[in-house]
Amino acid sequence: MKGNRERVPTVKQTIRKNRKWAGYVLYAVVLTGWLIYNRFPAEALETYVKAKVMETNPEMVLSTEKVDLSFPLSLKFINPHVFHKGMHQTPVFVAKGFSLTPQIGAFIRGEPAYQFHARAYGGVIKGRIWFKHRDMSGPFDAAVTLKDLNLQEHACISPLLNREVSGSLSGRIRYNGPPDLWMDGTGTADLNITSARMNLLQPLLGFQSLTFDQISTKAALKAKTMNLEHVDFDGPAVKGSLAGDISLKHDVYTSRLNLRGRIEPLKGVLDGIKDGSKGLKFLQQSLSKLKRTFVIQGTLESPVFRFISH
Asked: Residues 213, 234: contact at Cβ < 8 Å?
């Protein structure tokens, strides 16, 4: 009969009936998030991360002021420093802040991956790193983007090149290989340095140092050899290019150089000569004839530069 039928609740009645339960669920989610954020075991995680870094690469030591959890699901490292065991006084990497965000989909597939973002050396370093094994052992892939890094702020670059170097570095790097023996891996780099300045180990055309508006480099790593496909440089005094190979050694300073290039003096080499000086016009006309071919051999620690005939 009509009078015995059950009344079907309307949408409004259903919402009203379940509103309090939705409120309880929302409250539970917010409370859980608050507890995780405020009771986050930062010290335990910091100890774990440091141990994992040493397990991945026994030659590296991580030091950080603090580790925090930030949203969305990221680990935030405050003032991290990475040291090589043999260089405790000079960090190989320093950042004001470094965040690491796991990629959930990659973890489900059993191939851990992270995105990272760092504020370092007056610029930004960001990218992605992913591992082939669930325990993050063995080789890994990395894609890194660099933007406006101040080379002078990095404590290792000038000692590595055995000369004072400054400039602003930007570019992209790709790498695949083991974390502890990077020269056994493969990779590419497209780098650009602006407002560069480099001290010379021996005078060149009367200069103790050279400045460049831009230095662009394309390089590839394979079979323990760094192939410089091209290095183009352009400045007020000289411009030119070079290419060749660097045979990498475990002791990087002993890596062998086999580079060849051409250099061309520009009008900037005559800046010290007054406009009214005799012979200035002749020198300006002769600059194009002063292009020279050069080679750089020896090691990174003791490079040997010399001009050669064509």
From this structure: yes
DSSP state of 299: B
Contact 222, 200 (CB under 8 A): no
Kindly report, residue by residue over 209-234, the tens digit of the pLDDT.
888 999 999 999 999 999 999 999 99
According to DSSP, the residues that pair with 67 across neighbouring strands are 77
Pairing outcome for strands 225-234 and 238-247: antiparallel
Q: What is the DSSP letter of 287?
A: G
Question: Who's near 169: CB < 8 A, 6+ residues apart?
Answer: 123, 146, 148, 149, 150, 151, 191, 192, 193
Chain centroid, CA 45 distance in Å = 25
Arithmetic mean of pLDDT over the chain: 79
Beta bridge partners of 177: 140
Which H or E run includes 282? Answer: helix 280-286
3-state secondary structure of 165: strand
Tokens of 164: 């004072």
